[in-house]
Amino acid sequence: MTIPIIGFDEGEALLDWVSFATALAASHDLPKAEIGDTFLYRGSDTLLSRSAWIDGMGLAVKTANVFPGNPEADKPMINGSVCLYSDADGTLEALVDFHLVTKWKTAGDSLLGALRLADPDAREVLIVGAGSVGGSLIEAFSAGFPQAQIRVWNRTAPKAQELCAQYPGTKHAPDLEPAVRAAGIIVTCTMSSDPVIKGEWLSAGQHLNLIGAYRPDMREADDVALKRAQIYCDSFGTTLDHIGEFKIPLAEGTIQRSDVLADFYSLSRFPAYDPSQITLFKNGGGAHLDLMASHHILQKWKART
Fold it and tell me: Which of 61, 152, 268, 304 has its CA 20 to 30 A from that of 253?
């Protein structure tokens, strides 16, 4: 038996963002995933080993390393591997390109949160951060909110301008505060350890979607933002005790666990858009989402002819 090896370009040609987000939602109707995460650190470098098993779907093992200094040497910041195994007998079903799974899982996760919580008629989407994830978010949110103007802000303006040039119609936002105030949807994908979004800038009807923080010492939104917003996440298990976005304010008593109202395993508790509320979604990722993404990619690959 030949094991499929699904490369980035081959897999990308089979996918679309809204269908992918819909598949992620449907995957959460299956039994809750068993997951195991290991995090190792060396300064700013991180090794994440993530595994997941969903009864009725299968198993996945993903190993990822994050080296923030790599881009300075023209090397990818994130590298790793993904293996997908059969739920029936544990045999290897496919090798799926790591960067393909990571791209679609990460942006698709946040898109699903926004499709459930944000104004469906939002006219301005602000992407905060111009790294590789920023490009994926431009693609995903352009598909999910086709009527919206996409703008990009980055600490270094030339990098934001360079990213915008790759996506015709996308515009550079030179100043963060007015761009946040004007946007219906704000999506952050920075490597910041200190909050870049201030809650005092937010107003009723806005949706804040946080992606960048993945370590216990990292945050992208301040306490005021958390206290003013209705809070949701993709998974309680991968966010509350692991990522500084929640871990720090929980430890300090700024918020309580009950303030995080629902995750994707209780999507029915995600409310319809309410223009009187600020909503906040934290994308924490997790091996179960890598499994869901890989499984969807494999199903699309099998159905390609």
Answer: 268
